[in-house]
Design goal:
This protein has 363 residues and is α+β, with helices and mostly antiparallel strands. Helices cover 32% and strands 21% of the residues. The longest helix is centred in the first third of the chain and has 15 residues.
Length: 363
């Protein structure tokens, strides 16, 4: 088998793909597909539609997310996206194996469907299914630690010891980046909110990435914002019209730390981390607290990791050494970890070949 592999990390918000050995994925696209009625045979039926990637600006109301909250809801859409990735990368690397990262929430039937698409439709020579949180640990050069991953659809916490997930310690929140987007849509556009409007989508995405931050103290931030108007509170629309942002709009990521302020159910992310570590045997806690790996797009908000450290030090763990591992490429941690895994000889036995798959199907 070629030592190089094609890596596909398909999350709820984005698909990241590329060849192992690189420092970052060569392809990052929104995990979005659209269905357009065929002109020559229009109609709503399944057979009369064509599927495309991303948002079709001529038909902006036809797109959807095939993966939601870490679960595949539309396998046809997933198949289309994987086919696009494979076509692009196999032009020069036709005999590459494929590593697909998978969510801990995946069911056995999802794994079966993944193998079916890869071996029977895309005819790959071999495949390795890799746990997303484990890959984030490897991306940081660690075998033990607590992985906190907060992406578009899910926030997950999992302690590991010597490369193995500790049983009964994982925590999952179905609260993540898309919930912040929903809040901003409703707050900014109010009754005119339309999450299939490309203009509104772009506005919310830019505000999230360029204007939002996590305060070190919500009370102080709210006291400061109303009396100090600055350029940070203003977003310029494409036509040059300024839009003044309300304090809670810029402070939307505070929802991860004070969900009750936004009328959201708890617990907060720091509390989830604390609960997870408290469920681990006492002797392992010092090592885990000194290796807390923050990854996923939400951890990129300015102030996120500092606030997380502050909250953990205010807990019963204040007497321990707490260290947050936060690399500058932490939004790609899962993909990078899989890139490391592709070259580890210790994982050769984990690969499933096409011949082994075919053999397993024989009566």
């Amino acid at each position: 088998m070629d030592s190089r592999a094609i890596i596909i990390d398909h999350g709820s918000g984005f698909l990241k793909a590329g060849l192992s050995g690189w420092n970052e994925p060569q392809l990052v696209v929104p995990s979005i597909v659209n269905y357009i009625p065929c002109r020559e045979n229009p109609g709503p039926s399944y057979a009369r539609r064509r599927v495309g990637l991303g948002i079709d600006l001529r038909h902006p109301d036809t797109f959807s997310y095939p993966v939601q909250r870490g679960r595949v809801l539309n396998w046809e859409g997933v198949e289309h996206m994987w086919s696009f990735v494979m076509e692009r990368h196999r032009r020069e690397h036709s005999d590459c194996g494929v590593i697909i990262t998978e969510s801990p929430l995946r069911e056995p039937i999802d794994r079966k469907k993944t193998l079916e698409i890869m071996f029977e439709l895309l005819d790959v020579p071999s495949i390795l299914l890799a746990d997303q949180l484990e890959m984030s640990l490897y991306a940081n050069g660690l075998l033990s630690g607590v992985v906190l991953d907060s992406g578009y659809g899910l926030t997950r916490v999992q302690p590991f010891h010597m490369g193995r997930p500790l049983p009964d310690c994982s925590k999952t929140l179905e609260f993540a980046g898309q919930d912040l987007s929903d809040f901003l849509f409703k707050s900014i556009f109010k009754k005119d909110c339309n999450q299939h409007d490309p203009f509104q989508l772009d506005t919310v995405a830019v505000i999230q990435t360029s204007k939002c931050f996590v305060p070190q103290s919500l009370g102080e931030a709210l006291d400061f914002c109303p009396s100090h108007s600055d350029a940070g509170n203003t977003y310029l629309l494409p036509d040059g019209t300024p839009m003044e942002l309300a304090p809670l709009e810029r402070l939307a990521p505070e929802a991860f730390f004070s969900p009750q302020v936004f009328d959201l159910p708890g617990p907060s992310i720091p509390q989830v981390v604390i609960d997870s570590i408290e469920s681990v045997q006492t002797s392992l806690r010092p090592q885990l607290l000194s290796h807390i790996v923050a990854c996923g797009g939400n951890t990129l908000y300015p102030g996120f990791t500092t606030r997380l450290y502050q909250e953990l030090m205010a807990s019963d763990f204040s007497s321990f050494e707490v260290t947050i591992w936060a690399s500058t490429t932490r939004n790609f941690s899962v993909w990078l970890g899989a890139s490391v895994l592709a070259h580890l000889s210790t994982y050769r036995s984990e690969w499933l070949t096409k011949e082994e798959y075919d053999e397993s199907l024989r009566p």
